[in-house]
Fold:
Amino acid sequence: MPKSTKKKNKAPLETAIDSVLVLDGFNDWVEFPPGSMPSGNAITCSFWAYGSDALPRDTSVISASDANGNRILNIDLPWSNGFIYFDCGNNGTSVGVDRIEKQASPEVYRDNWFHWAFTKDAATGEMKIYFNGQLWHSGTGKTIALPKSSLVRLGCYGDSKYFYPGKLAELQLWNRALTEPEIKQNMSRRLIGDEPGLVGYWPLNDGEGAIAEDRTSNANHGTIHGNPSWGPSTLSLVDAIPSESENEKAPSSPGTPTQASDTPMITEIVPAGSAIADKNTAVIQFDGETNYIEIPHQSVLGLTNNFTVEAWFNAQTLEGYRRMFSKFPGFGYGLVGSSLLFTTYWIQDYAAAAQLTAGTWYHLAIVFDASNSVYFYLNGSLVQTVAGESPATLSTGALEIGRKAEGHDEYWHGQLAELRLWNRAKTPGEILSGKSYSLVGDEPNLVGYWPLNEGVGTTIQDKTSNANHGSIRGNNVVWGLSTLELAAAELKSDRGTSSQAIEEQAQPSTPEGKEQIPSIPGAKVPSQGETAGKLETTPAPIIIEMESLSDEAVLEFFTKGNGAIYDSVDTALDQMKAQGAFARNAVPVFIVISGSVATTA
Structure:
């Protein structure tokens, strides 16, 4: 295919889609020229879709037909019966079409962004459907080719019926059946428009007007009908890879693995092994009926008290008992209605009332201390403390995420992310400071860490060296996209508490290269002369004196670094040195409240 004639100042090199096409489901559609639909033996049609809560109903996302109205291609996402239908090819009759179909749950087609790819190769007889880069359904013996189309429409079927309600982005048509690695590679990035085999590329992010621009040199621009809107999008894609016309060092073309490796650039929704670093990374959808994760017992998981559990959760249902985590006959936690719940099985139920909204992300931390009291934290704030009398029973049973291990019920309905298990009671400051960051997995006292962001497959990875890996059980395992935003994992040194992020925040540089002490609301900052030479510690700490510590100061301090509370500066330095916190010459910052923390000045 010739290089794109698109002007460079409008090339799709953004890191995120600014706007998307929003269809109302009543009379909105886009009509493309007949030549935009490939003909012959092979095709790939892919796009991102965000279906509205009006689904399921009779809808067609994209359709093509010949001059006699015979369908050549049609994708129902879904039909009113919940089936996703993929029709492709026609032998010249109204019924001479190849089809594959599969029942789908609402979690895969509405209220979130999902990537779909539909492929056919009549030469091999294979038709396939890919969901979020993974093969979802397939059929064989499908050998009818695609004739030339006379009518091609997005958002409805044929002569304007079965309108699709929702958002669409990144529509691509290829004249060949892409492979699974190619689909995975292309789904999370923009295209240029000159990729081999690409015959139509409509990002659908024009933002205004009645034209949906085709970024290929074929210029099969679409005409928008009805009254659709251009809405903001939370869908994020990486930059397009420039072609030779825009970069003298042209990489291998998108859709083809590089020469240096047999693996694609992007092998999952998120790079393999990474923790959640921003919104729209992978997240598992628990169906509330059959899905859960089973993790075999290891001795490090056999905790009875003096431990902390954490999780981010997004509940689709706030009714009845819903378990996030269960280790029978030891302990478990979850929700009962809108209340937070922690259970020591056969011993005691601990509950804390909370104001929760379905479909919203919350951070939950529960501390079960050495005195058998439970501390419930929601979004970093203490909600309630409940006293107890006995530790949990030592459990050697499997750990289950997403249901109650005893009785095999109380299934979780919604999303879970960033599950953590610590073998000590964490402090309020540690909970507040750590909730908005992913982890590395080598943090002290961390015995289990499951980001739950694999994106494909049925294996769940524990990022700690304990390797408490698990397997997803149940029907219709679904990976979706998450809107949860967490800062990237901070690399630790010698499993200490220092990080490069703290170093950079503790001593930002002025234009002249001089060090500055960070600004903390209400702080009286001593001069370098007041503290220099007074501490026989390498490196010397920065000490900030305050009369009191306001809520604003607490929030800024604990969300910009690994804050902790100590009896004295000397005690803190001794502990940090013992943990290897200065392996990379980090400069510790201490906030000293007058009369409560000793200084050496």
Notes: The radius of gyration is 28 Å. The CA atoms of residues 252 and 259 lie 8 Å apart.
